[in-house]
């Protein structure tokens, strides 16, 4: 099973991200744009895991979710990973609520390690973001750079974080399909 743990986003953020993707796509830049229906904020990418690991993952998620209460996040900027000359990934960044997301990611990661799962935490610090697209080539990149500057400041978009979800990702030539396996409400004991 190819698994990851994520936070769902609100419909207003999904709609705004869809509009931003449409504007960026219009530049003709060669990016693999995210399907708005598949938008989510990944906390932990687990990768290929055996079915037998699922109970341990769910225990880790239950404990981490119980220790965090619901909170609100604000997406407040368009950014990228890579350099301005070579933006590998375009994203909406989190301002308010980033600290809580980082704490939630750290708690889940710590609990996954305690469960002795074959989970390797990312070496770089977690940067809360909503991926919009990934670069495939430098085609029309100059046009895209202009739009990145124009849309660097986005209207503040809010989303409530009240649960974490264990997803399975199934890859296909048409792109990944995500299936929610289990949800864990924040602040609730199961």
In short, what is this structure?
The chain has 190 residues and is α+β, with helices and mostly antiparallel strands. It has helices at 11-25, 54-66, 98-114, 141-150; strands at 2-7, 31-33, 41-48, 71-82, 87-94, 129-135, 153-161, 163-170, 177-185. Strand 8 and strand 9 (177-185) form a beta hairpin.
Describe the protein.
This protein has 190 residues and is α+β, with helices and mostly antiparallel strands. It has a single domain, classed as Cyclic Phosphodiesterase, Chain: A (Alpha-Beta Complex), CATH 3.90.1140. It contains four helices and nine strands; from the N terminus they run βαββαββαβαβββ. It has helices at residues 11-25, 54-66, 98-114, 141-150; strands spanning 2-7, 31-33, 41-48, 71-82, 87-94, 129-135, 153-161, 163-170, 177-185. It has a five-stranded antiparallel beta sheet. Strand 8 and strand 9 (177-185) form a beta hairpin. Helix 2 (54-66) packs across helix 3 (98-114). The protein is globular and about 45 Å long. The two termini are 24 Å apart. The mean pLDDT is 88.
What is the fold named in CATH at topology level?
A: Cyclic Phosphodiesterase, Chain: A
CATH class placement: Alpha Beta
What is the N-to-C order of secondary-structure elements (H for helix, E for strand)? EHEEHEEHEHEEE
- Classification by helices and strands: alpha+beta
The level of helicity is 25-40%
Strand order of the largest sheet: 2-6-5-4-7
> Could you give a short account of the major beta sheet?
5 strands, antiparallel
CATH superfamily, called what?
Answer: Cyclic phosphodiesterase
Instruction: State the shape.
Output: globular
> How many structurally independent domains?
1
């Amino acid at each position: 099973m190819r698994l990851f743990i994520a936070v769902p986003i609100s419909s207003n953020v999904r709609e705004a991200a869809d509009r931003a993707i449409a504007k960026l796509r219009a530049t003709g830049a060669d990016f693999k744009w995210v399907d708005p229906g598949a938008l989510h904020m990944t906390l932990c990418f687990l990768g290929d895991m055996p079915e037998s690991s699922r109970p341990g993952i769910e225990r880790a998620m239950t404990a981490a979710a119980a220790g965090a209460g619901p909170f609100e996040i604000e997406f407040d900027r368009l950014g990228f990973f890579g350099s301005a000359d070579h933006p590998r990934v375009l994203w909406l960044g989190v301002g308010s609520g980033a600290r809580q997301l980082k704490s939630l990611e750290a708690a889940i990661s710590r609990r996954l390690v305690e469960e002795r799962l074959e989970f390797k935490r990312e070496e770089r610090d977690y940067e809360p973001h909503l991926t919009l697209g990934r670069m495939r080539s430098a085609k029309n990149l100059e046009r895209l750079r202009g739009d990145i500057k124009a849309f660097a400041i986005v209207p503040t978009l809010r989303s409530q974080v009240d649960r974490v979800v264990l997803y399975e990702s199934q890859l296909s030539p048409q792109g990944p399909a995500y299936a929610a396996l289990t949800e864990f409400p924040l602040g609730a004991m199961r």
